[in-house]
Amino acid sequence: MDNSPGTPEADASLPDSTKNTIPSDFDFCMMRRCLELARRALGRTSPNPLVGAVVVKNGVIIGEGFHPRAGEPHAEVFALKAAGDAARGATVYVNLEPCNHYGRTPPCSEGLIKAGVAKVVVGMVDPNPLVAGGGIARLRAAGIEVLVGVEQEACQRLNEGFVHRILYQRPLGILKYAMTLDGKIATTSGNSTWVTNQDARSEVHQLRATCDAVIVGGNTVRQDNPYLTSHQVEAHNPLRVVMSRQLNLPSNAHLWHTAEASTLVLTEVGSSPDFQAMLRQKGVEVVELTSLTPERVMTHLYERGFCSVLWECGGTLAASAIAQGAVQKVLAFIAPKIIGGNHAPTPVGDLGLTSMTQALPLERVRWRVVGSDCLVEGYLSQTKS
């Protein structure tokens, strides 16, 4: 069975009682509206999923809502509040199964029952064992008609980070890099401005806005002096994470300016106390780990409640992240340029593979043109630990 993020594994154990009737075009349209609403909170809901809800009566939307961030009411609560008493006898659309357990907020299944809705259309089953079909079963037990699996693939894709976090107890690791047609990420002198076009760079800015954190190593800070922000007004900025064992970093890097976005520096115990003190004085968070490895870093970010982590590092750190299972998804921007150079850096360093049969294949590969560049996207094979 394919256990990689974005697949229907979470639905595999769905009981027969959740079998569906055939959805209508209107059902698909309303579910797409749920996804639009859910995206308004991109990057802000972890460790919770992105959820939107729509209440419809007599073919007219009477209430909408989305989950804005962890600790605040769920999408169904906002949508039902907007609909008011008119929700009785209505149909509710939601991209993720309504919860059926008490957490920071009461279960949404009970709220739907109390509102007297006649039907609930669900995009995908919640992979969380605390929910996992229980919300659907509770609604049906109360006499509410439930339709499951509308726009399921799109719903799973939107929340693939949440799904991966639930299934593997790790954030989803996304490796992003830009390279020339001959596989180089910079010239032999280290210059990398710019490999891709403005359209591709804008796409990366949008990608950052969807993630909880973006990780680089010390070499990237020294050579590129990046900002690592989303470059969008009012958009979410991820936590900027720098991995550096010795803290041999520039004292005036853009990442140390934390007014716009927060920065976390991860290092090893006892490394450069004076530099640590300087960073903390600038508002940079510094955390010492006993072992600074991609695997340990992802454990730390999981403990912070993160769902999606973007690796924008150089080839050496990228290879370590892949080897240690910290990367599940790859986004490769390919520019129609040729640099050449026997020693020009490549996106992924040495993995210790000596034959083509050992190459790591990507699954569910998609590609599209972005301006004059090409974006290739796929997933590395995953197994549960």
Strand tally is: 14
User: Could you tell me the radius of gyration in angstroms?
Assistant: 23 Å
Compressed to H and E, one letter per element, the order equals HEEHEHEHEHHEHEHEEHEHEHEEE
Tell me what portion of residues adopts beta-strand conformation: 15-25%
Number of helices: 11
- Backbone structural class: alpha/beta
In whole angstroms, the N-to-C terminal distance is 14 Å
Helix content: 25-40%
Strand order of the largest sheet: 10-9-8-7-11-6-12-14-13
- Main β sheet profile: 9 strands, mixed
Task: Report the principal-axis shape.
Answer: globular
Mean pLDDT: 90
Name the poorly predicted regions: 1-19
What report would you give on this structure?
- This protein has 385 residues and is of the alpha/beta class.
- It has eleven helices and 14 strands.
- The chain has helices at 25-38, 75-83, 108-115, 134-141, 152-158, 160-168, 198-210, 218-224, 273-281, 294-303, 315-323, and strands spanning 52-57, 60-66, 91-96, 119-124, 145-148, 172-180, 213-217, 239-243, 263-268, 285-289, 308-311, 329-335, 362-370, 373-380.
- The strands form two sheets. Strands 10-9-8-7-11-6-12-14-13 form a nine-stranded mixed β-sheet, with helices on both faces.
- A hairpin with a 2-residue loop joins strand 1 (52-57) and strand 2.
- Helix 3 (108-115) runs parallel beside helix 4.
- The longest helix has 14 residues, at 25-38.
- The protein starts with 24 loop residues before the first helix and ends in a 5-residue tail after the last strand.
- The model is unreliable at 1-19 (pLDDT under 50).
